[in-house]
Every structure is written in structure tokens, then in C-alpha cells.
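Example 3.2
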Amino acid sequence: MVVAQQPSTDKDPGGQQEDFGKSSPLGLVLLVLFFIAVFFLVRSMNKHLRKLPASFDKPEPSTDTAEAPAEEKKA
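Structure, written as C-alpha cells:
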């Protein structure tokens, strides 16, 4: 039978080791790289969004610029 024993909290209260809450320089580098990647992704997305038309609705022909019917053009 295996008996589970609680770790001693005399030297380590709360189960936190001496490195608890510390980060390495590698974490900082990764965070900076993620921020740079997000910056370039947002910049690229804005370029693509500027190319889109304001509306995808079909333009309605107005009476001023509408072409005359083919029969009237022959005359």
C-alpha cells in the first residue's frame, strides 16, 4: 500500500520553491518577438483593408449617367 505524505512546509511555506514568480530572459525575448509579430500582422491587415471598397453593394444606375437604349443610339 502506498501512502501519500504531505511535503514539509517548514522550509517552503505554501509549496513555493525559491524560483517561484521569477522569469528567465528567454521569456522576455519570446514576449518581445510576439509583440513584433503582432505589430507586423496588424500593419499588413490594415494595408489589405484599405484596398477593399467602401461597400460591396451593386451601384444603382442613376438617370443622369444611364446610357440610352440601343434603339435610340442608331438614330
